[in-house]
Write a structure and sequence with these properties.
430 residues; alpha+beta; Hydrophobic Seed Protein; cca-adding enzyme, domain 2; 11 strands; 10% strand; elongated; binds cytidine-5'-triphosphate
Length: 430
């Protein structure tokens, strides 16, 4: 039997200790304890993964409470599923009771019943994610590989356990492509056929918006996400989600270049940049505008994000036409681009090849976007200007002057107002 004790010892000490304690508590309680899933896969692949999933053949919640007494994290208990999680400073440990699952109907959430580690591993998605390492002291580090996961890792292959895997859980269609792209593994032939059959049966449409969104976000957060998007397109996944969702080769290229654009713009702004939103804008760039609202909930849940996406995609052509003009002055440029978030601007920049447009967006973010005036209404009041709509007009004119480089600091601004207000007064008087 292969043993990974020495490899585990090389993990950061706090992780090693958690695994050691878990085994020892299992010894005391007389139950078998395993670390399973992605952690084992990545340990074998020598990839960093500090998400510990523990499976115990016994009362998982009681075990979790005992473990938490030792490692002193924050415990959450989910009675109905027989699971618990322990939050440590930067890590989360998930604990489940070994179980098999049966499905009431395809794509439903599983109903849980107690069972052994074999069943627990068999119910999992792919062989590479279905290995366990025993943690009880006497067998600490022993690998349990009932389904050939290790050989599949060596052959760089992803394989499901049985023909109904994708109908049991259609999110696996998205997961298999994510792992294939991330690990650069191929999908085993039979598995590919099962997946294609599930696609023909439109199983993707059975996934709730909530779950599909979570999977899409996982994909967008992968380093090799543009590669994964390209594999998804090859298998027709996007058209399965919505027949109008077509990802062009050109879009993949743009997604590939996106990180460079984000890096460039992050030099010019202190704003937080939500990369996922920009990626979603690219994915939806050719989607019919009048049908956008039907698909957005599969990508984002936040209402503000939905509005930003609709606004950005709808206005794209209009913005490009306006800022294509070489002779645009700084204030006009400011006024055109002001309504857009940093994410929308990076999308517009990355989406377009016209160098005048690109230069204008870059110039705006670098030099104009964060320009603010120093004076406020209070200053206007102390200049004895009677409050009213004229305040907005004056402040706007000060901003314009600042953008055009006619004023620089607070004193300049005050002087400008004095001058501006006098001129206006004269105009009104005459
Ligand atoms: N799993 C599954 N079917 C799913 C989701 C998860 O069988 N639809 C199992 C797999 O064994 C997986 C484990 O639950 O390894 C943990 O799931 P998750 O944390 O989502 O995946 P990881 O494999 O840890 O992937 P990642 O590295 O992306 O976190």
């Amino acid at each position: 039997m292969l043993n990974y004790k020495e490899t585990i010892k090389q993990l950061p000490n706090k992780l090693y200790k958690v695994l050691k304690h878990a085994g020892e508590i299992g010894d005391v309680l007389g139950i078998k304890v395993y670390v399973v899933g992605g952690f084992v896969r990545d340990l074998i692949l020598k990839e960093k993964n500090f998400d510990i999933d523990l499976v115990v053949e016994g009362d998982g919640i009681f075990f979790a409470q005992k473990l938490n007494e030792k490692i002193k994290g924050y415990i959450n208990v989910y009675d109905e599923f027989g699971t618990a999680s322990i939050e440590l400073k930067n890590d989360i440990i998930d604990i489940v009771t070994a179980r098999s699952e049966y499905y009431q109907y395809p794509a439903a959430l599983p109903t849980v019943k107690m069972n052994s580690i074999w069943h627990d591993l068999y119910r999992r998605d792919f062989t590479i994610n279905s290995m366990a390492i025993k943690l009880n002291s006497l067998e600490f580090g022993n690998l349990l590989d009932y389904f050939g996961g290790l050989t599949d890792i060596k052959n760089r292959v992803i394989r499901v356990h049985h023909s109904s895997s994708f109908t049991d859980d259609p999110t696996r269609i998205l997961r298999i492509i994510r792992f294939a792209g991330r690990l650069n593994f191929t999908i085993e032939e039979k598995t590919k056929q099962y997946m294609q059959k599930a696609l023909e049966q439109n199983m993707i449409l059975k996934i709730s918006d909530d779950r599909i969104r979570k999977e899409i976000i996982h994909i967008l957060e992968e380093k090799s996400f543009s590669n994964i998007i390209s594999i998804m397109e090859c298998y027709g996944i996007f058209q399965n989600i919505d027949p109008n969702l077509i990802i062009k080769k050109d879009t993949i290229k743009k997604l590939h270049n996106l990180e460079t654009s984000i890096c460039e713009f992050s030099k010019y702004t202190r704003n937080y940049i939500d990369k996922n939103i920009i990626k979603i804008m690219h994915i939806l760039e050719s989607f019919p505008l009048d049908k956008l609202s039907n698909i957005l909930t599969k990508f984002v849940s936040d209402k503000k994000c939905i509005l930003t996406l609709i606004f950005t995609l709808t206005k794209k052509k209009d913005v490009y036409i306006k800022i294509k003009n070489k002779k645009l002055d700084k204030y006009d440029l400011y006024k055109i681009l002001e309504p857009y978030s940093i994410e929308s601007l990076i999308f517009y920049y990355n989406d377009c090849e016209n160098y005048i447009i690109k230069d204008h967006i870059r110039f705006y973010v670098k030099n104009l976007k964060d320009i603010k005036i120093d004076i406020t209404g209070k200053d206007l009041k102390s200049l004895n200007i009677k409050p009213g709509p004229i305040y907005a007009e004056i402040l706007n004119n000060v901003l314009k002057a600042k953008i055009l480089g006619e004023v620089d600091d607070y004193i300049d601004e005050i002087n400008y107002v004095k001058k501006f207000y006098n001129i206006r007064k004269n105009n009104i008087d005459t």
